[in-house]
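User: Fold this, then the next.

Assistant: Folding the first:
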Amino acid sequence: MPRMQVYLPEELYAAVKGRGLPASELLQEAVRVEIRRRDLLDVTDGYLVELLAEVGEPDAEQSARAHQLARRLRRNADRAAG
């Protein structure tokens, strides 16, 4: 199995060691999650390019409506979160 040496800032090292956490497993999972996140962003970017090619850029009114809806959704989510 290939190896990679990773350096942690002192406070992270101390927290991992102090809690007896399995550093290797934590780091592997963090890397997996980040790779998955970036893969999903790439897929999203590709979808948006295809969507824009199909339906075109939104006009000013559509953009304003979308921003208004996003603000409302964000406020509702904030209220639900407490």
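Now the next one, as you asked:
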Amino acid sequence: MSGRPAGASREFGVREESRLALVRGQGARFWDAEGRAYVDLGATHGAGSLGSGHPDVVRAITEQSHELLYLGSGYANPVRTAFLDRLLSLLPDSFARVFLSNSGAEAVEAALKIARSATGRPKVVAAMRGFHGRTMGALSATWRRELREPFEPLVPGFVHVPFNDPAALDLAVDRSTALVLLEPVQGEGGVHVASPEFLAAARAATERTGALLAFDEVQTGIARTGRLFAFEHSGVVPDLLLLAKSLAGGVPIGATVTTEEVAARFRGTHHSTFGGTPLACAAGLAALEATVRERLAERAERLGAQALARLSSLVPQRARELRGLGLLLGLELREKVAPYLARLQSRGFLALPAGATVLRLLPPLVIAEEDWADGLSAILEVVGNG
């Protein structure tokens, strides 16, 4: 007989035994088994920028599944080539090479290996409050102690500096530094926006010392912040750009994009068995085309501005601060956020935390304007009434 308690989850690492079970999705809405609808204000953690069931992505997956599901990277494939060409066409001309994987953490791991190999140096400078993933290298770059401590010792050579402190960053970057790894907006860390001065200081420090600069845009990339890529807000172009989440419309994918010059200096090998499968690339190509054609960056900027205007009335009465870019927003409360998330869920809206006190909004960029307005009204009601 099994020793597993009745009703316990079979998933490793899942603690809640009473999680909401969702069985169907369309656009920015989900439904449970009883047919109750929920509006996605962040349930997909930014991976669902096109929502559920986007017709272009569904069509691409269906057609590609009939042609070729899997092919190793040792062989060329027209779908992979088309996806890479389209991705690079949306980026500055300095970017020329892409390593494809399956997730944001894998994109970070590839960047760490590329930087150490290309520079011959060990040190990585990251930011306090930053989050880069849960694999050992990505976790070493992540700041939160409670995430790190159970798995120590982690990978050596990582140091953390205060976010948006150009002087501290400049002091930390020296000629032993391989990589400066930053998020243009810290999502998991509480939705803190990097100042243009901070990112410019990172660019100057890496150029002064010969280190490389990487922007982790796993959450901010692909139109989330009101630009196709968040670094466009500052005009600072990195040497490595890390993408995942919404890059393929919800199909697992990760991308580490770099320059020809950095790629030429790489020594050693790196590989991902399932990185860049025809299925993922077909979905990615469809997702990129839909994002550009539907002008979702502009839409994110407009809907985000609406939210900032409406929710600002909560500051300072019930909240400490409202911050963000586009449709990546954080409302920092004066108390724990969990009860407020539960109240929103009971009203049919699914948001998520960013730390203990921040209510984070990451809706699909295709969310219906009525649903977005209703979601903001629910937040005003729930938080405003305490």
